[in-house]
Amino acid sequence: KKQLKYGAQYKGKREDAAMQKWRSNRFGQFIHWGLYAIPGGEWKGKTYPYAAEFLKSSAHISNATWDSLSYKFNPVKFDPKAWAKMAKNMGVKYMTITTKHHEGFSLWPSKYSEFNVANTPYKKDIIGALVKAYNSEGIDVNFYYSVLDWHHPDWRYDIQSKEDSIAFSRYLNFAQNQLRELAENYPTVKGFWFDGTWDKSIKKNGWWTLKIEKMLKEIRPGVVVNSRLRADDFGSRHFDSNGDMMGDYESGYERRLPSPTDTQVIHRDWEACMTIPENQWGYHKKWDISYTKTPFELIEMLAQTTSLGGNFLLNFGPQADGMIRTEEQQIAETIGNWMKINHPAIYNGGYAKGWQRQDWGYFTQNEKDKKLYAIVFNIPISGILKIQTPEGVSIGKASLLENTNSKITIKEIAKRQINLYLPKQSFPAPFVIVLDTANENKNNYIDAKT
Ligand SMILES: C[C@@H]1N[C@@H](c2nc3ccccc3[nH]2)[C@H](O)[C@@H]1O
Fold it and tell me: What is the residue with the minimal CA distance to atom 3 of ligand 1?
């Protein structure tokens, strides 16, 4: 074990109320909104297939030209209440908003940078309006903050000279000031989601990342900080040089999930963030320039994430005029209709210890009602769901969540092996079965000798 000054500050999961709330939320809405929404992946008549929030680099646009987009930022149709209503109906319990993405443009009237929403035709504080609207819908708000900053003259990718270190320490102070401002001015903020911390300049300044984590937790006790902020004494990120996770949850699952059998992740809090297109976080004018995931695919990701004790953060990229594109509205509505019936399998849901993952879907254990839920995506031709029960546990009753009078037949076929006979009906969408379990140590079975 190395002696670390800037490594993990604690081991195991935080069990305070704020973290338990963060964990129980399970389903969140990511929002990527900034100047990149104006060109929307197109520049001088050319469409770029890469992530729309990266257009500045894919189209080799100068800082001056890109920054002048701020004079065009005027989302006249922006209605934060409508966004919050849509999110509420979709069933998210939290939202994470880009306060400043790599482009360096701040969506709040920051005292520390002119390059912000106050100096645009729109003028108003977008972060403040979103926090108010989402909180009034009972949705927690977290702030995404990119440490990487293409606009700020003192940003450095690496520290290779005295000038670099002098400039970069100015940058680190600037970022610290902005983060303090966000934590102080928006007191209901529940978490900080750091991005853009992979460059050598940050890896060589792990001390700063711990300082930021401590500062935010001092200003806002209970606030939740992602592992992606953190680098230790030796530049190790997310996990310190002793292998201990830094920050409050592991945030390495970006556009990918752990495999359904990767039970390593259940030992810590973690979150997967996901785009609906293959790789577009900001608004791209051509929605179908890449594959866009269907609601059922997204619901399965939410179920798989919950079954492994993680949170699922689904991304939306609002248009420059402030409207959410219709394709995203429709997906939000479909997911919301599913959540209205099936949310008991998700909210407060987590890993169902000892319940073998099956091909037909996912188990989640609700830590509030202690019930076991089976979320079914693949119905076997036999119509029989095979279940392997943990030692000493049997299934008393099974019923469809959407119709608890629908008693489902179950039959024990061998030691710890159950057949669950699905009712003869169509299942047009993924569905949930509630399983009442009971402890039982009857054992009528003899193992084979081989
Ligand atoms: C959460 C996601 N992380 C950002 C990002 N920055 C990258 C730099 C290099 C390669 C991939 C990246 N994704 C994306 O723009 C989005 O904000």
Answer: 195
